Amino acid sequence: MQSELTPIRSSGWHLGFGNLVRRELSQWFGTRTWFTQAMFWGLILGGVTLMLVGTADPASTPEERITTGLMLFTIFGSIFPAIAIIIFSTSSVLEEKERGTAAWVLSKPVSRTAFVLAKMFVGVVSYSVSLVLIPGLIVFSIIYLIVGAIPLGSFLLGLGPMILWYTFVHFLCVCLGTVFNSVGPVAGPASVSLFFVNAFDLSGIGAYTPWTLSFVARDLMQGLPITSISPVISTLIVLIVLLLIAIWRFGKEEF
Amino acid sequence: MSQFAIETQGLSKAYGDLWALRSLDLRVPKNSIFAFLGPNGAGKTTAIKLLLGLTSPSEGGGYIFGIDITRQSNDIRGRIGYLAQHPRFYDYMTARETLRFAAHFYYNGPKEAIEKRIQELLTLVDLEEKADRAIKGYSGGETQRLGIAQALINSPELLILDEPASGLDPQGREEVLDLMEQLQKTTTIFYSTHILDDVQRVSDTVAIINKGTLVAQAPINQLLSGTDGVAYVLTIEGDYSKVESHLKNLPYVTAVTTRTEDDSAHLVVTVEDETKAKKDMLRSVLSDKTVTVTEFGRRKYELEEVFLRLVEEKKDAE
Questions:
Q1: Which of A143, A195, A208, B121 has a C-alpha 20 to 30 A away from that of A103?
Q2: Is residue A185 one of the residues assigned to a domain?
Q3: Domain containing residue A175
Q4: Is B201 on the interface with A (CB under 8 A)?
Q5: Minimal CA–CA distance to A222: which of A76, A75, A71?
Q6: Residues in chain B within 8 Å Cβ distance of A254
Q7: What is the mean pLDDT of residues B44-64?
Q8: Best CA proximity match to A135, nearest among A11, A234, A225, A43
């Protein structure tokens, strides 16, 4: 029977990636976590939208109400669910190092790069579905039911920069998790970064930081031409840098 | 092709100014049960982590099946199985899921063959009944057994076990040692331990390490025979003085020491020609009808004696 087993012959940086991704995905989507998170943030963000759009000045135009609703969603939606991301992403790396599961996994034919990439990739997919897409669709439905006339395509496109923002928070935590071994230095910088959401505008240095992605998201959701693509480009560059640092640092980790 | 599964040259690891392992030269023969013996903190786990590529050496290097441990550790890990001293798994998973996860690092499929292999291992380590329960509810012994199962998932050519019997009750320990003996037919087993009885029971080769330094490395029979010449032990009842003087006159005997206890006398006879001694000594003693020989054999030390003596000798040499 043993001869029927088909050994894996590949090697290189991606060794073990598929198996690691499957495990990480099953830990999120194979349990109630994905649904609980989606419903929780859907109800919070949907509730805030309902409260503010539903009780807006009756004299305001539908466009004004939509603008208000989307502004609240892009700001609140960039701050509060990010707290959950900081908690999940921080513990995701630190727990594996602390409890010894990372050492166990790495005693198998697994590349360290694959280990980091799997964490990065699955986090993006999981958070995009549970913390952006589903809560976003709940908010969209509420605005649509109360005000009407909001294009779904534009709205979905606007979720892109929000996903990029969450990816930044997630990558930052994972990267710092490969450098440090305690919660403070890992969760601290990501938590502080939440205070900068909406603190800058798109003029000056703000245009080159991830903290102005909420403006880009709002513009896209409203079907407006985007004021600046710079936050998207600079965030992508930051993500690449964080990824490279994480891979380099994890490769040096002693277990 | 090397006759050794593991070969290291000057393998060393320092943490700051502290040397956890210093210039380790190991030679682990293929298909042996090789005990890596040393007290807690001797550097055994550090050496194992270096072999697995979980940490990198400060100096020196080594080969497993001729593959460089620092440059090609992924290739090595595909051919070995490893059990950590305190095995840790994802505690939300069941034993079956853990084995399935481990299996997919080595095999693409088919699914049925993987499931069959998992079932075989669950049976082997007696975890069938708990196979579908989350690991977080497992006892230490059950976790250890799961650890052994996952280390065997790829039918490894080399099994590296870090203190496999520590923390187990006597029955669990016995089961692990039995399993190691069974596995020797197909696998080289390199295991670390501080339990001398286990080493003496199952190992055929032993390396002794203390304070990060290799103290001795030899087949266990050689170590137990001692380094102070070949000697035979005789226990006799009756008038031992005649036997003692007779033995002293034999040409191949270099020394006889006698200790009496109740009605018996224990004679340690050191010889310079083992072949002659083996052939002639007992026959010659039995020719004296006034004594009864109750025990005869080549002198063997207890491993504990050997271990303590070697460690002392090393200390004196430093």
A1: B121
A2: yes
A3: 16-53+60-252
A4: no
A5: A71
A6: 49, 54-56
A7: 96
A8: A43
